[in-house]
Each structure stands twice: as structure tokens, then as C-alpha cells.
């Protein structure tokens, strides 16, 4: 790739041959001329575009994008050549190495084009939320976050400047530690996360397809505690509408939850549990969406939590962060809106309640009586205890797992 770049940028260089085994191939100058004719563009601009996109999408010193190969990268770059010119010209000898906004914008638009063919106008965080509902299982297919992109871009620009100035006797390069790397044991290692400011918020998130919260309550609760999470999103909760016992048991001490089961169908449902020193806001629009069913509705609700930090902020950090636009000041109009929504929900619930099959005011006689009782045997009692489900409720006087564990000791005592 550097050969194709230099054949079009070094004055006086007309041919550049590449030796492979014992054969000399007219590699660089033939390819550069052929591509310039094919795409009807200047050879210098085309070779700069090839080098920049090659580095940006992954090379020996810059990480690769998952399942975004070079063929797609070059095709997308050719389609957006005019927009990529600020990026392509970065690092040219004699030019400033300051990263200007037009370079970042060009790289961001190119990155968005690699993941979304339509004209998407948002940043990469918004694109992640947009694509989240269509990803089936593997989250690596999602584009990088805006913060990760900024670090990735700086590492790519550093390498781009190195490649373009490799022929100079006394080149000037960017400082690596200012371009997405840090010194670790005298080695320049990539920075994985941006340095946080004093007013920033660090929240440790978790997300899991639970496939029944009720059947995995203890495992999920232990996972939350062991991983020291701040909040935890759950898909496929398989929650029964109106039954919150599993979620109550799941939450460690000092945690709260929001949930929305899938009504009318089995499976589905999402839940969000979080520490009670956080404020979690849900808009009325989201509550209306929760009355619908389907995977897209569940993905939309989880995207709201995981891509809008304004809706999930520690109480003690509120003084450091601007008030989120989604949370509005109290007003009579908002109260009326909520009241209308609440009354409409109650009316819909009443409509779905079937009428009684008989007059509830009628006193029914006892159909049978129990004149005597037989004492239960220890074997029957042991069989009943062994068949208990491992899940239990906070309302149980003795947790089921504990009872099963000590039954043989307690049951044999006199």
C-alpha cells in the first residue's frame, strides 16, 4: 500500500517494481495507473485514500473493525472519496499535525457508512442504539462507541503520518502518547478508555439474556454482586405480568428495578435493576411502548438505558452534570398527562377482566368436611421436602434451599 502511495507522491519516481521470489513485478505504478483510470480520479488522491482507509480499518499497529474487511472498506471509500479528502491529506509532509474538526468529521462519516448504508445523521453512539435491535446475538457487529472511535482515529492518524513521512531524513511525527497510546513498561500500548474528567461519571453496566429470571434468580444475584455492577439489564426475563417475586429476590440489598413483561405471549420481557443511589427516569412514551409486544420494543427500552446516560445518573453526581433534557420541570400539564395515561390504563385493565360466572354474593354451602386427619410419615415428609424448588421468596419463613440442606438433620431430631 505504501508503494502505491509513494509512486504517486515522489517527484521523479516513474516506476516502482516489487521483487517476489526471483520475479520482479511492475506492482505499484501499474496498479496506481489502472485504478486512476478505472475510477476517473487523480492518482494522488486515490492512493492517499487507499493508504488512509487501509490504516483506519486495521493494520499492523492499528486494531481492526470486526467483520468489516478491506473489500468493503475500499468500496465505501471510493463512493465517498470527496468527503474523505480532509482525512486523506492528513500527515502530508509540510502540513500541520493538529487534528482538525474536518478530519474527525470525515473519519466519523466514513465509519458510519461502513455500518449503515442509509444517510444516518447521528454520531456513533446514536448509530449503536439504532442498530442494537437488529443485532442477533453477537454484539461485536455493533460499531465502536464515540469515545472508542476518537482513540482509534488518533492511533490511525499517528500511523498515517509515520507512513507518509517515512522517506524523510528528519521527519516530524505526532507524540504517540497524545494520539491514543500510553507508556506501559517502556512500551507504547493502546489506551482502551478515555481519561475521565473530574466531573465525569463512571457506571459499570451489565447485560444478559437470562431466559427466565425465576429459574436463575440466585445465579443472577451472585453475578451482580461478584462483578460489582452499578446496573444490570436483562432480556428474556420470561416474567409473568403482575408477578415481581423473582425480581425482588434477585435485587441485592439497596437495589431497585424496572421491568416490562411481554403481554399476551410467553417468553420475552426485559428488566433493569440498579443501585438505589442512582436516579432512573422513564418517559411516558416508553411506558406506552411497553404496552406493545415484540423484540423491537424490548430493544428500544434497553437502548434508552444503555445509550442515554442522562437517564441514569448517581444522585451525588447531579451537581456536576447539566440537567438532562428528558427530565422536565413539574407542571399542571404534565400532571394531567400522567393522570390521563393512568386512568386510560385502569380502564383498559377493567375491560379485559372477564365477568364472574356466578353471583359472588351467594353463600355457598360446604361441599365436603374433614372429620379426621392421619399423621404424616417421615418418609412422606422427606419426599415433599426433596421435591421443593430451589427458588424461594423473602416471605418464606425458611428459605427452600436451606430447608432441603438441613432436613435430614432436623427431621431426625426428637
SSE topology sketch:
Elements: H1 2-7, E1 18-20, E2 23-25, H2 27-39, H3 43-56, H4 70-79, H5 81-88, H6 101-115, H7 124-132, H8 146-164, E3 181-184, E4 187-190, E5 205-209, H9 217-226, E6 231-235, H10 245-250, E7 255-260, E8 270-275, E9 278-280, H11 284-289, H12 295-307, E10 312-314, H13 332-352, H14 378-386, H15 400-411
Parallel strand pairs: 5-6
Antiparallel strand pairs: 1-2, 3-4, 6-8, 7-8, 9-10
Helix pairs in contact: 3-4, 3-5, 3-8, 5-6, 7-12, 14-15
Brief characterization of the structure:
This protein has 414 residues and is α+β, with helices and mostly antiparallel strands. It has 15 helices and 10 strands.
Structure characterization notes:
The chain is of the alpha+beta class and 414 residues long. The chain has 3 domains: 2-190, no CATH class; 205-320, no CATH class; 380-411, no CATH class. The chain has 15 helices and 10 strands. It has helices at 2-7, 27-39, 43-56, 70-79, 81-88, 101-115, 124-132, 146-164, 217-226, 245-250, 284-289, 295-307, 332-352, 378-386, 400-411, and strands at 18-20, 23-25, 181-184, 187-190, 205-209, 231-235, 255-260, 270-275, 278-280, 312-314. The chain has a 4-stranded mixed beta sheet, with helices on one face. A two-stranded antiparallel ribbon has the order 1-2. Strand 3 and strand 4 form a beta hairpin. Helix 3 (43-56) packs across helix 4 (70-79), helix 3 crosses helix 5 and helix 5 packs across helix 6.
Tally of helical segments: 15
Order of helices and strands: HEEHHHHHHHEEEHEHEEEHHEHHH
Percentage of β-strand residues: 5-15%
Helix content: 40-55%
Shape: elongated
Helix and strand composition category: alpha+beta
Radius of gyration: 31 Å
Q: Report the span from N to C terminus.
A: 86 Å
Mean pLDDT over the full residue set:
80
InterPro entries: Endo/exonu/phosph_ase_sf
